[in-house]
Amino acid sequence: MISDDEEIAAEKQLARLSKEWTAGVYGFFKPDPIIEYAGGRRAHTFICAATHCRGAT
């Protein structure tokens, strides 16, 4: 279980990191990735921005 403080820290980290995502490839994804946890580790999941995307993520 993630504490509220850890969740706030994750949101701040995401905001800081996203300022550095300037490569053109990020244009294919929605602007706000989802913060997910797997095996106790944090991951940023990027969602395809296409209206008819062929992939799940």
Describe what you observe in this structure.
With 57 residues, this protein is an alpha+beta fold. It has one domain. It is built from 1 helix and 2 strands; from the N terminus they run H-E-E. The protein has a two-stranded antiparallel sheet with strand order 1-2. A hairpin with a 2-residue loop joins strand 1 and strand 2. It is globular, with a radius of gyration of 13 Å. It starts with a helix and ends in a 12-residue tail after the last strand. The relative contact order is 0.17. The mean pLDDT is 88.
Total count of domains: 1
Strand content: 15-25%
Find the structural class using helix and strand composition.
alpha+beta
Whole-Å distance between the termini? 24 Å
pLDDT < 50 stretches: none
Strand numbers in spatial order across the main sheet: 1-2
Total strand count, please?
2
How many H/I helices?
Answer: 1
Main sheet summary: 2 strands, antiparallel
Helix amount, in percent? 25-40%
- What is the overall shape? globular
The succession of helices and strands, N to C, reads HEE
The Rg value, from CA coordinates, equals 13 Å
Mean pLDDT, to the nearest integer, reads 88
